[in-house]
Amino acid sequence: MAKTLTEKILAEHIVDGTLGKGREVGIRIDQCLTQDSTGTMAWLEFESLGLDKVQAELAVSYSDHTSLGFKGESTDDHLFLQSIASHYGAKFSKNGNGVCHQVHYERFGIPGKTLLGSDSHTPTAGGLGMLGIGAGGADVAVAMGGGPFYLTVPKVMRVVLTGKLPWGVTAKDVALEILRRISVKGGVGYFLEFTGPGVKILSVPERATITNMCTETGATSSIFPSDAVTKEFLELEGRGSDWRPLVPDPDAIYDATVEIDLSALVPLVAMPGSPDNVVPVTEVAGTRIDQVYIGSCTNGSYRDIRVVAELLRGRRVAKEIDVIVSPGSRQAWEMLIADGSFLALTQAGVRMIEPGCNACIGIGFVPGTNSLSLRTVNRNWKGRGGNELAKLALASPEVAAASALKGVIADPRELPPVAVRVTDLIVDDTLIIEPEGGAVPVRRAPNIVKMAPPRPLPAVLKGEVLIVVGDGVSTDAILPAGPLTQHLRSNLPEIAKFTFHYEDKTFAARAVEKGGGFIVAGENYGQGSSREHAALAPWQLGITAVIAKSYARIHKANLVNVGILPLVGDTTGIDQGDMLEIDISDLTRPLVVRNLTKGTEVPVRAELSERERRMVKAGGLLAMALAGRR
Ligand code: MIC
Ligand code: SF4
């Protein structure tokens, strides 16, 4: 039978089950990545599996989110991660080497292979024709240990690209256009596959910008074919032998199609609040901004920053605003030094920041109260930049550069066109450390707290509704990133105190006082990051179930993995403080939430596979993995 590109890669990797839409299958994971904010948990979880070393073909532990070591505890995390990677046989990408996703496609990604990463933007690797999937730390731990990764085979949406991008319109605008059309929920349950004649005019870094930001549609992954462009890129990286051609069968059947004429696109901006709040730049041109931040795993490629350097060369950024550029990798950084772009940028008044995430999650460059920060990143929910009272808008490097010059949102098409073609790359793996094996001691500072043992769920759940939240609540809202919490990622009891910090600062204390209870939510609960902490922290506070109208994929999996039951139902009429009782002894049957306070009953479902039903009752993924080993 004719196959899509995604189905071809899945078929090559299935180890449990058979390929069929909506079915749960186990796939072999070839490569794994972790980073410093989810990685400490992932590695503690890997350790608890009791294996001697990593079993996957390749595992890379990246230090990028807090590369500047903004607190002693962050540096402790980095030392732990470097030593544990070496001990168990993973490579370690040191601070300053760049953001995991960009470094991974530059130095390690291979077309046709599978990559599981403890970060939601792992699909960035799809720019290279690799199947990258974001997951929680426990899933990555199991995959590093050689275990399968389970997923429900999603539908495949074809995105047909035709035409050619006009000057000033970029790969970022393609991603924003997709978000404008299908929203932050439109990709849920789908893989996105890019096809059509427009594909071949996009370089690998441009493709990676698109696959990176398609995460924001809720899609499980997104992928481009592996073609002559991919081959040329891998050759520039000195990895030509990693190339293999990979395209979908011509008569493959897709579940949905989106067509985008690149020639008809215009520069776009996602205005504050959500990545799908997208408008043409012309509609908001002239809006005052206070900051510009160019970089991140979305737009940190050499091509992106070089274009900005050409646009700013010989000019000055507006004196009222603060502008930073943080390239996505050390490779890009060195290229910018070698070709003179670095000097052009600093002379234009830009502050150059080392490759890494940092400002993207509010570690430095936190925007001031009521200010508007224009960024080339991928997310702009409330609080994302580290200040819940500031606003973030998202745009391409071209829009960001034009706006930096004027001090207001500006249309880059007013500037003379710039074209950048990359014909060579500096390869420097100095900051990638090879593992040395089991003799290396693991460095564990007091802030690295081992996890409490898993808790099986009782047959009847009883407790109070501790919070009721609306639609589209992101993991940033459940457990914020940034300066408040970033140094506590390996200390669950402490980080749990910040659960729902921006929604309701009394939540954590109430949960402790009531001895746990329930969370009630609307649609697409837990969208955004792969942050397992957004499930682990509520678990730490005694939450046993969430009742929501629908869930984002990774967060739902994380809830099950930690032993919290994600129930689906119409939550209208359930209020904070209501006492609920749910008999969960048979999860295959329709369930009923008995509202003891109101005397009402609400039907709910556990939309889980047989494996997930067993797992959640047993207390989560690690409980099950360990039971399987006994
Ligand atoms: C993000 O962009 O939200 C993060 C920070 O990279 C997260 C991971 C995390 O919370 O550490 C993600 O995307 O998964
Ligand atoms: Fe880092 Fe930001 Fe990319 Fe997340 S979205 S991996 S924080 S650069």
What is the gyration radius calculated from CA atoms?
23 Å
Strand segment count: 27
Taken from the alpha-carbon principal axes, the silhouette is globular
**Distinct small molecules bound, one entry per kind:** alpha-methylisocitric acid, iron/sulfur cluster
Strand content: 15-25%
Compute the number of helices.
Answer: 20
Query: Roughly how many Å apart are the termini?
Result: 41 Å
What spatial order of strands do you see in the largest sheet? 21-22-23-24-27-26-25
Content-based structural category: alpha/beta
The poorly predicted ranges are none
What is the residue-mean pLDDT, rounded to a whole number?
96
As a percent range, the share of helical residues equals 25-40%
The main sheet comes to: 7 strands, mixed, barrel
Walkthrough of the structure:
- The protein is an alpha/beta fold and 630 residues long.
- Helices cover 28% and strands 20% of the residues.
- It has 20 helices and 27 strands.
- The strands form 6 sheets. A 7-stranded mixed β-barrel has the order 21-22-23-24-27-26-25. The protein has a 6-stranded mixed beta sheet with strand order 7-6-3-4-5-20, with helices on one face.
- Strand 1 (14-16) and strand 2 (24-27) form a beta hairpin.
- The longest helix is centred in the first third of the chain and has 17 residues, at 72-88.
- It is globular, with a radius of gyration of 23 Å.
- The mean pLDDT is 96.
- The structure holds alpha-methylisocitric acid and iron/sulfur cluster.
- Alpha-methylisocitric acid (MIC) binds at residues 37-38, 65, 119-121, 134, 361, 481, 528-531.
